[in-house]
Amino acid sequence: MTHPSDLTDRFLLENLDIRGQVVRLGPLWRAILSRREYPESFRQLLGEFAAIAVLIGSGLKHPGRAVLQVMGQGPVSLAVADCTQDLALRAMLKVDQKSPSPLGEGRGEGPTIHDYFPTGRLVLTIENTQTGRHFQSIVPLEGATLAECFERYFDRSEQVPTHLWVHVTGESVGALILQKLPKADERDPNGWARVQQQAAQGASLALGSGAGVEGFDVAALLTSLFPHDDVRLFKPHPAKDGCGRSEEKVVAMLKGLGRTEVEAALAEQGVMKVHDEICNQEYRFTPADVARIFET
User: Fold this and answer.
1) Are the beta carbons of 143 and 149 closer than 8 angstroms?
2) Tens of pLDDT along 87-120?
3) Between the CA of residue 189 and those of 166, 215, 218, 263, what are the distances in Å?
4) What is the chain's Cα-based Rg?
5) Beta-carbon count within 10 A of 190 CB
6) What dihedral angle (degrees, nearest 10) is formed by the CA atoms of 11, 23, 156, 130?
7) Parallel/antiparallel/unpaired status of strands 237-241 and 88-95
8) d(Cα 292, Cα 273) in Å, to the nearest integer?
9) Is pTM beyond 0.70 here?
10) Could you read off the pLDDT of 33-71 as tens digits, one per residue?
11) Is the peptide bond before 102 cis (omega within 30 degrees of 0)?
């Protein structure tokens, strides 16, 4: 399901040769939060995962998905977000409920990425459903936040200077990315530094405005941030919830396991349970259901 407040939109500062993109999640973000009880100090991390997955997924040139995942030992044992080419988004954290909240208490600042993941590594996987192939890249956990980690990743992988802001509340997620293109210094040697400063001063307030309500105006946001620049805004693309129930996919998975393995599990448990961890949904199949699956 799509909603007018769930979108991403690319833009170009034509006079400066600087490109950017805005991500805005309102109802979709609240749906993600509703699937688990998350301590408030973990919402920023989850929101960054969600926004960055949309940024990467929107850039896919083929049918498939972008998957961000960290597995480690610490306050967060698993973090994952994936976004398809048509912007179906899923995201979740597996949080140790015994972790201190808020993290980073006593330092006078919010938690860093290393508070969440004392161990572990971030893996970015790009899946191509046309070819069945996938590409994996390790994103070093360098920086205080996930956004800073991806700034460095984009700098290296795309060789394009990048700055990324993500603002998260219980109602909405807003993200803004700026990237300096090759001719930017020719257009204005001070342009890149100037727009970064303007965005840094106003991005959090602008991205946080509206609390995810309908009618979020990307054009007004960009005009407020860059009033002296020529903003060319492209067609917005709606994001949607990737957590709709799909028994067909689960049935296909059971068929892939084979009748012997499924019936063995059924004999042990009395009912076949399949848990979709990302979406926190459970599918249950009785002996009669399993018989029908393998008779068709």
Assistant:
1) yes
2) 999 999 998 766 554 455 545 567 899 999 988 7
3) 26, 36, 27, 68
4) 21
5) 10
6) -100
7) parallel
8) 16
9) yes
10) 999 999 888 999 999 999 999 999 999 999 999 999 998
11) yes
